[in-house]
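Q: What would this chain look like folded?
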Amino acid sequence: MFTRVMVLVAMAFLAGCGHKPADAPAAAADASQQPATAPSGLDSGTAAPSITLPAGTAIHVRLAETVDTRHKRPGDAFAATLAEPVSVHETAVLPKGTSFEGHVAKAAESGRLKGRALLALTLDSFELNGRTYKIDTSVDTRASAGHKKRNGVLIGGGTGLGALIGGLAGGGKGALIGAGAGAAAGTGGAAATGKQDVSFPVETLLTFSLREPVTI
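A: My prediction, written as structure tokens:
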């Protein structure tokens, strides 16, 4: 009897041991289905916060080259550098010395006897941390002085000189003839020398403002 009981116990033990290996693969499969947990404190996907320069932001730059109506035409590019840092909420966004590029929006020489020379510049982009940002800014426009006063001096001076020479040569009639000739000479002199230009020398300080916001 005792022997029979021992045999039954041994068989039960062996049966139990035979089921354990079958449970192991199932446990391994359950473990493989669990989502991987990233180590705490790592957030490599976080991007640096962006900052927006609002419309109306003033941009003060210095020209890196001379720009004038004699050598520049509409569409020609020019270079400039930021003269003062640009900040948003007291945080510096663009440091002094940032490189800017712009173009000539308008360039027109004056006529010989009338009209004014006109030069208009605008900014197109800047470079920061290896990236180029497109911008839309206001236009800085300059015009030459008018011709009227200068032409009056030249023509009037010519008239007076002609009258003097004519008066010495032939009295009153000669003075009238001389005045006419002097006026013609003065007008010719004004026409020959009266053309004017507008120039922005290198290092000229110019101020523009953003027309549209720029996100950096």
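The chain has two domains: 52-145+197-215, 148-193.
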